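From the methods appendix. Each design record in this collection lists the tokenized structure first, followed by the designed amino acid sequence. Records were kept in a plain field format so they could be parsed without special tools. The example shown here is representative of the layout used throughout.

RECORD:
FOLD TOKENS (270 positions):
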């Protein structure tokens, strides 16, 4: 079968509502719409694409499921452009990885490559508010200072990396690291028999690495930050394996995924 025939067959297999959804995406791009902007009303979309009300509503529902729009009802209702939330992207990624074997080693192999570059690239762009947020995160995840339970402290460890990610101007690198952070936050669990002393030891090591990284970042020493983050990722991988960390073998449902409060500096940049 020729390439042209294969493409034609694939197009014919798409439902009419899927084709309309693609055209609405093209419309969003052509009009350079941004989150918060409104789509044309349903009746206008019907007229533009020459399809039924049911087809338009099915297309809009598809885009809503993808996280690209939100839909409101009533006389002034319709579609509004939305920024796809990270947890929705994580769920799509889980669907892709559902039948694949993903290990802690796989995740930390990628982190060891990306995180040092992410942190080094963030250094020139860190503000006073970012440093304040980083210091606050260290205080929250350090077992010698925090009164939070140890699992909450481990999740706070990841917030530190989110703050650095938000300061990095490379959107693809930022997205990749934030997605991995979200996987670590939501999907990694530790063995029930992991001693509390191991959690404490891990937390103290993380807090010290974070302090050293902040000190080097304040000095605007990107190379030192890169080297420290590389050592931090190697140590973290070793600690998580020692604590018998593993990936949860299940899908997270929408109802299970609670939007976590993001650090103030991250919210400000977002």
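DESIGN:
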């Amino acid at each position: 079968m020729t390439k042209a025939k294969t493409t034609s067959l694939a197009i014919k297999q798409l439902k009419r509502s899927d084709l309309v959804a693609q055209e609405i995406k093209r419309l969003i791009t052509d009009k350079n719409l941004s989150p918060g902007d409104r789509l044309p009303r349903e009746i206008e979309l019907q007229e533009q694409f020459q399809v039924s009300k049911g087809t338009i509503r099915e297309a809009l529902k598809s885009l809503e499921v993808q996280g690209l729009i939100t839909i409101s009802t009533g006389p002034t209702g319709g579609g509004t452009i939305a920024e796809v939330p990270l947890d929705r992207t994580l769920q799509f990624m889980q669907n892709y990885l559902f039948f694949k074997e993903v290990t802690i080693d796989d995740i930390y192999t990628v982190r060891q490559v990306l995180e040092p570059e992410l942190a080094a690239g963030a250094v020139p762009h860190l503000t006073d508010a970012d440093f304040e947020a980083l210091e606050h995160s260290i205080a929250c995840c350090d077992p010698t200072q925090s009164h939070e339970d140890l699992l909450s402290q481990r999740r706070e460890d990841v917030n530190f990396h989110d703050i650095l990610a938000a300061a990095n101007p490379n959107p693809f690198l930022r997205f990749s690291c934030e997605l991995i952070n979200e996987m670590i936050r939501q999907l990694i669990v530790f063995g029930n028999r992991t001693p509390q002393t191991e959690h404490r030891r891990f937390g103290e090591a993380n807090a010290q690495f974070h302090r050293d990284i902040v000190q080097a970042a304040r000095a605007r020493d990107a190379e030192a930050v890169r080297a420290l983050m590389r050592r931090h990722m190697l140590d973290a991988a070793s600690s998580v394996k020692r604590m018998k960390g593993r990936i949860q073998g299940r899908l997270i449902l929408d109802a299970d995924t609670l939007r976590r409060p993001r650090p103030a500096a991250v919210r400000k940049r977002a």
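APPENDIX NOTE: The chain has a mean pLDDT of 83.
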